[in-house]
Amino acid sequence: MNTPSHAILNLAILITPQQPTATLPIIFCAVLPDMPMFIMYFWAKVIRRRQSIII
């Protein structure tokens, strides 16, 4: 998944000049689908102390 593109596309589609305060919820909901990936990366790197294996 590509988090920056989620945020950019959601902002482009959903933001209106009448609701500039909707920016934060739109960005939060754009990042939400990628949260499991961030959590698993954090778990592997910090808790399990795994190193990346490049083949």
Report on the architecture of this protein.
There is one protein chain. It contains three helices and no strands. With 55 residues, it is mainly alpha-helical. The mean pLDDT is 81. The relative contact order is 0.15. The two termini are 22 Å apart.
The number of distinct helices, counting runs of at least 4 residues, comes to 3
**Secondary structure: number of strands:** 0
Strand content: under 5%
Tell me, rounded to a whole number, the average pLDDT: 81
Q: Identify the overall geometry.
A: elongated
Q: Uncertain runs with pLDDT below 50, 5 residues or more?
A: none
Largest sheet: none
Name the helix and strand elements from N-terminus to C-terminus, one letter apiece.
HHH
Helix content: 55-70%
What is the structural class? mainly alpha
Short account of what is shown:
The protein is mostly helical and 55 residues long. The chain is 62% helix and 0% strand. The protein has helices spanning 3-14, 23-31, 35-47.
